[in-house]
Amino acid sequence: MSEAATHSAYSAAATTGSPGVGPGLLASLDPLLREWLPRQRWFAGKGRPVSHFTLVAATELLPVRAKLGLLHLVVRAHQPLLPTQGALPHPADCYQLLLGVRGTLPPRLAPALIGHLEEGPLAGRTVYEALYDPRPAEVLLEALRTGARVGELRFERDPRQDVRAGLVPRLMTAEQSNSSIVYGDTFILKLLRRIVPGTNPDLELPLALSREGCPRVPAPAGWLLADLSPADEPYVLGVLQPYLQGAADGWELALRELAKGEDFTAEARALGRATAEVHTSLARALPTVTLGRQQLELLVDGMTERLELAAQAVPMLRPYAPGLRTAFTALADLAAEGRTWTAQRIHGDLHLGQCLRAPDGAWSLIDFEGEPSKPLAERRMPQPVARDVAGMLRSFDYAAHSVPRAPGPAASADGPVATAANWASGCRAAYCTGYAEVAGRDPRTDPVLLRAYETDKAVYEAVYEARHRPDWLPVPMAAIRRLAANEDPT
Cα 231 vs. chain centroid, distance in angstroms? Predict the structure, then answer.
């Protein structure tokens, strides 16, 4: 579809409303979505059947009765509680869907098939995941570029950034909790799949960092919002940012260097500096708070409760629970003595996979959404920077235990386990050193706080691996043993 044709079709949908979205739409889609949605990587309710869907909003971005239609849906997926969840209220998760609509699906789009509709307003049409199709993807960029408004959807952009028309789109196929489209190796559009009302940190924090002139985070060029209820704040549906062409994913880069037996400490040190730059910029851009005894008690109570639940779920954890608990009681003891800590906005889910290294060696941090499973209000709370640091230290551990080591400069004669530990230890130390060079304070000078956050993260990892990847459970368990014994890995 040419640029002019795309604009014309998009404009028609924007001005004529949604005549193809009539009664019975959701009922006709229900059996198809019930089969398709739980298979998606970003579906959060795996392991529980979908009882029914509720349609929150439906908007035509391309007329659905044309040769190619594009339908934007927001639906709630209602699922029964598991027995372990008791009778606690469990709000239905809300999802953003982009459905392409065609008479027949060309072979190139076969992997995107959702199904063929026999009844309802789209009877006789085939629906599919639209993001696999370049033409609907072009419509999204055109709407962002022009600052369009279609129904409940608001496409907004930063006028300081030039977004050219006609950039060729391609869907990123790597598994992730959201969906991303790259446009001409110039921009990347991240579409959030499970959505909630309110200010999403994945837009809020990069905008704040842009105002501070922080070069370590790509500045948003556009964003997609939805006004779905007068009682709710707008929903953030997507963020368009510059695409860092040629940048290497930090996790993949570390694994490559590790497999070759290459030293990674210089990269770890540079990454520590980049993290500190982001933290110091966030502290200038947004309010900071002081955590005293009461706040620390709540923090420790949460960590302790998660440990107790984890010990019930993962039998291998139980012998180490008393030692792990001392990481939290030590923090509570310092708070009782009058020690305070500064809390600020942080990344919230920092690990090697959330970092990109440009060809010139500069590191950038991405994906400020935080842990999607946590409530939005919790993800936006100020926290000690030690939480981000602990997440990165755990990531070095994971990398070290993920690849068989080849002989090389960083190898050790003590065997593969010792070699992995030495590699991780060197990276951890270098990262903290780099952080201190910018922040003026080494995270290791506050060992009690850092140990508490690293313990909390390792406990979470043990539960995750036990449930989803049992073969990986030895990775967090190695850290569990070290943390329970309060051994210094650096």
Answer: 27
